[in-house]
């Protein structure tokens, strides 16, 4: 099962690379065309914006899995194992609540977005903002899985250290400051 999960996240990382590359290529080609030929591709501006939205929300799920989001590590670092576990439980409960609200908001907004069309491509805006389903559901699933492992005592010391920011190398800590 873990291999399938790792493969899924590897596919997401490749998708992020493809979307970022597509954004960069479209913007670069458009800039060159504007300066060299005094024209441009209107579709590239629109698609680059949509790719950026998708990169942001897919990246949020991948980053959440890797414990890469901001945290108050200063507080958690001074706590013992039990205090850290309590903080992890509370953190995951808050994340589940916020992500569920985000998913529900996307659901409620979908009929409005689905009826709106993009000005250049004519795509339904539901395709653009529908990424909220993936992002909300992805974070809920990850947080629920972590919460179950926390409550059943199957959390590893490595995960607790990652939550407290103690797994970083000196180079990674220097990048943060």
UniProtKB/TrEMBL annotation:
Tripartite ATP-independent periplasmic transporters DctQ component domain span: 23-152
- From the record, give the transmembrane residue ranges: 12-35, 47-64, 85-107, 127-144
Q: Does the keyword Plastid apply?
A: no
Annotated InterPro entries: DctQ, TRAP_DctQ
Per the record's keyword annotation, is Transmembrane included, yes or no? yes
State its location(s). Answer: Cell inner membrane
**Main site of residence?**
membrane
As one GO molecular function, the record gives: transmembrane transporter activity
Q: Which domain of life is it from?
A: Bacteria
What Gene Ontology cellular-component terms does the record carry?
A: plasma membrane
> Keywords in UniProt for this one?
Cell inner membrane, Cell membrane, Membrane, Plasmid, Transmembrane, Transmembrane helix, Transport
Q: How does it sit in the membrane?
A: Multi-pass membrane protein
Q: How does it assemble?
A: The complex comprises the extracytoplasmic solute receptor protein and the two transmembrane proteins.
Question: What's the family?
Answer: Belongs to the TRAP transporter small permease family.
What function does the entry list? Part of the tripartite ATP-independent periplasmic (TRAP) transport system.
Full protein name: TRAP transporter small permease protein
Give the originating organism: Sinorhizobium mexicanum
């Amino acid at each position: 099962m873990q291999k399938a999960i790792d493969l899924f996240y590897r596919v997401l990382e490749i998708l992020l690379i493809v979307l970022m590359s597509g954004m960069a290529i479209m913007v670069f080609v458009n800039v060159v065309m504007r300066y060299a030929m005094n024209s441009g591709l209107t579709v590239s501006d629109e698609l680059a914006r949509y790719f950026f939205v998708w990169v942001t929300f897919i990246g949020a799920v991948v980053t959440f899995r890797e414990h890469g989001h901001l945290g108050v590590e200063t507080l958690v670092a001074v706590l013992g194992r039990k205090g850290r576990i309590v903080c992890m439980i509370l953190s995951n409960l808050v994340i589940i609540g916020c992500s569920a609200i985000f998913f529900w908001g996307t659901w409620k907004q979908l009929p409005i977005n689905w009826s709106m069309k993009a000005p250049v491509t004519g795509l339904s805006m539901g395709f653009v903002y529908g990424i909220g389903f993936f992002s909300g559901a992805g974070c809920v699933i990850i947080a629920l899985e972590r919460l179950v492992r926390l409550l059943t005592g199957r959390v590893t010391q490595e995960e607790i250290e990652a939550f407290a920011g103690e797994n970083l190398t000196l180079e990674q800590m220097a990048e943060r400051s």
